Amino acid sequence: MGSQGKKWFSLNLNNKGKQKQASGSCGCGNPSGGCHSNETISDGAFFEAAVDASIGEERHKDGFEQVFDVKMDRRTAFKKLTASLLIGAGAVSTSCSVVAGDDAKEKSQIDWEEQFKGNYKLMNDEEKKGTVDRLVRSYQLRTGKTISLSSKNAEKDVLFGYAFNISKCQGYMDCVNACVEENNQDRKSEMQYIRIHEMKDGKGFNFNEADDNYYHEVPAEGHFYMGTQCFHCDNPPCVEVCPVQATWREEDGLVVVDYDWCIGCRYCMAACPYDGRRFNWSKPEIPENEVNKNQHYLGNRLRKKGVMEKCTFCVQRSRAGQNPACVEACPTGARIFGNLLDPDSTIRWVLANKKVFRLKEDLGTEPKFWYFMD
Amino acid sequence: MLLHEKTMNKFDLHKLWYLGLVVILTIYSCKDHDNEYHSITDKIEAESKKYEGTSISLEKYIEGIKMLEVTENGLTFLIPDRKGELKSYACTECHIKSLANMQSKDLKKAHWNIKLDHANLNTMNCVTCHNGNDMDNLKSLTDNKIDFNKSYQLCSQCHAKQFNDWTGGAHGKRIGGWAPPRASMTCVNCHNPHKPHFESKWPERYNTQKVRERK
To answer: What are the chain B neighbours of A158 within 8 Å (beta carbons)?
Structure first.
C-alpha cells in the first residue's frame, strides 16, 4: 500500500500484516500480544489524544467559531481527523488488541483496508490482486469456504457483442433462471437482469402493451417474445452521469460497476434508456450451497444492499472464453455471443448476413446488442 | 470624432475576442475522448483490420468431447460426433437380415417408441432418410450415402435456409463458449429427427419483480 503513484488517499497501515502475524507479534515487534505504546492508555484515551494532536482546539469550538475563526482549512482538518481515526480506532482496536483472536484481528484489518481502498477503475494489477485476495480471505474467515475471485483484465483484440433472434425466443425463461444462479442474485427480491417481454403479433415492439409477467404455456398464440438486459453501449449514458465514476466501459466493451465505489444514487438507472440497470433494495441473500464460487470482482461476486448492479455479459465467464449463462441456457439458440473484432466469429456472420437492428439507435448510445429474425 | 473612432476600435477588439472564444470553444467542445469512431460499426470495421487473434481458447472446455471438423459453405468448424452417442449403433448388429425378413411377427418388436412426426406422410416416411439395405448409413433423396455423423446434410435437403444460418452461426448453439476454435452443435443435438418441433410448455419461472416495481 505505498502512497507513491496513488490517485486516492490511503494510509500505510500494517502492510506486512501476514508476516507479522506469522511471527506472533502485532505490528510493533512485540510478541506478547500488545504494543508497548498502547498498553498504558485505553482506546478512548488514545482516540482523544490522537484527535487532539491532529486538530487540537478546533474541535472544542462550536459551529460558528469553526466557520469564522479557523486556523486551518476544513479540508486539512478533516483529512487529519480521518488519519487520527484510522490510527486510533484501527490500530488500537484490531492489530494490538490483547483480547481479540488472530482471526478477528485479520478480519478487521481486512475490513479497514477494504474500507479505504480506491476505485477499481484506477487500480493497477497489483492493487486489483490485493483487493481480490482480501475479499477471498474475508469470505474464508467468515464462512470457512473458499471462493475463486478473478480480477482478469480485458483481453486485447476482444470486443464483446450479442445478438438476439426474435423468431427463436419462445419465452421459456431458462435464461433468467441461469442468470440468477450464475450471478449470485438475491433470491427473495427476484430482481433480475434479464426481462422477457411478451408482445402481440402485428404490433411491433410495443413495450407499453407488452406483458412482462406472463405465466401460462408458452409460446402463446399470436405473441412473440423478446428479451432485454444491459446492452453494453459503446457510448453509455449511464457512465456519463455517474457522479463518482463507479461505472465505466472496459476495453472489451463491457460496462461494469465497482460495487464498493457505488454510492447508490441511481443516476445511472435514470439515464439508461433501456431499463438495463438494477438496484439492490434489500440485502441480497443466497443460500450458502447455491453460491456460485467462480466469481469476478466486476461480475457476480457477492454484493450488498443499496448499490447498482446489472448484466455484465457474465464477465467471469466471457473473459475466460465461455458464453454468458443466458446464452448457454437458452434451449432455442436465440442468443448469440462473440467477439466483434474477430472477422470469422459467428456474431460477425450474423451482423453481416442477417437483417439486424438495435433499440433506439437514434440516441447514439451504440448498444452492442442486436436483434434479428430468421 | 476621435472619441467615436476609439469606441469603434474597442468594439472591434471585443468582437475579435468573442470570435476567438467561439473558435476555441468549438474546438474543445468536440468530445475527442473514446469517440474516435462515428459509430460502432465503423469501430468494428476499423479495429478488426488489425485483429491478431486472442490468447483465449476454447480447448479446455471441449476437452474430452469427441469432435469432427466439417467445412460447409466455405466455413470450417467442429461438430460433435454422433455415432458414439447413438445407443444401438452400429445398426447392423441387429439388422443382419433385410428389412422384409425382420418384420415378421416371430421376432421381438424394436423401435416401438419411435413415431414419425416430421412433415406429413406424403413428404416423408422412414425410408426417406433410412436405407433398408444399408442401415448403418443414412441416404439422401437421390439415394446417395450420408454418414450418421453428418446427418445435417440430410436436413439441409429441405431446410436450406436453416442450414445456411447454421453454417454461419445464426441458427443453433455453440459448445463450450465463444472463443475460437468454433464448435457448434449439429441439428440432432437440439431437434429429435423423428419429431423435430419444440413443444409448448410452462415458463421456467414466474417474474413478480416487475409488478412490485410498478406499484
So the answer is: 54, 56
Question: Given an 8 Å threshold on Cβ–Cβ distance, is B178 in contact with A350?
Answer: no
For residue B143, being part of any structural domain is answered with yes
Instruction: Tell me what pLDDT residue A16 has.
Output: 46
Tell me: the pLDDT tens digits for A34-54? 444 444 566 666 666 666 655
CA distance B58 to A296: 19
Quote the domain boundaries for residue B94: 59-104+114-190
Of A171, A318, A336, the CB nearest to B169: A336
Average pLDDT, chain A: 83
Is this complex's ipTM strictly greater than 0.95? no
Is B112 within 8 Å of chain A by CB? no
Mean pLDDT of the region A120-124? 95
User: Given a cut of 60, is residue A6 above it in pLDDT?
Assistant: no
Q: Which of B39, B72, B178 to mutate: most A Cβ within 10 Å?
A: B178
Number of domains in chain B: 1
Q: What is the 3-state secondary structure (H, E, C) of chain A?
A: CCCCCCCCCCCCCCCCHHHHHHCCCCCCCCCCCCCHHHHCCCHHHHHHHHHHHHHHHHHHCCHHHHHHCCCCCHHHHHHHHHHHHHHHHHHHHHHCCCCCCHHHHHHHHHHHHHHCCCCHHHCCHHHHHHHHHHHHHHHHHHHCCCCEEECCCCCCCCCEEEEEECCCCCCCCHHHHHHHHHCCCCCCCCCCCCEEEEEECCCCCCCCCCECCCCCCECCCCEEEEEECCCCCCCCHHHHHCCCCCEEECCCCCEEECCCCCCCCCHHHHHCCCCCEEECCCCCCCCHHHCCCEEECCCCCCCCCCCEEECCCCHHHHCCCECCHHHHHCCCCCEEEEECCCCCCHHHHHHHHCCCECCCHHHCCCCCEEEECC
Give residue A85's pLDDT: 62
Q: Is residue B197 part of a domain?
A: no
User: Using 50, 70 and 90 to split pLDDT, how confident is the model at A25?
Assistant: very low
CATH 3.30.70.20 positions along chain A are 160-372
Within a domain: B182: yes
Residue A178: Cβ-neighbour burial (10 angstroms; 0-12, 13-18, 19+): buried
Q: Among A233-237, B30-34, B46-50, which stretch is predicted with the lowest mean pLDDT? A: B30-34
Q: pLDDT, tens digit, for every residue of A187-221?
A: 888 789 999 999 999 999 999 999 988 989 999 99
CB contact under 8 A, A157 and B53: yes
The whole-model pTM stands at: 0.78
Q: Which CATH architecture has domain A160-372?
A: 2-Layer Sandwich (3.30)
Asked if the structure places residue B29 within a domain, the reply is no
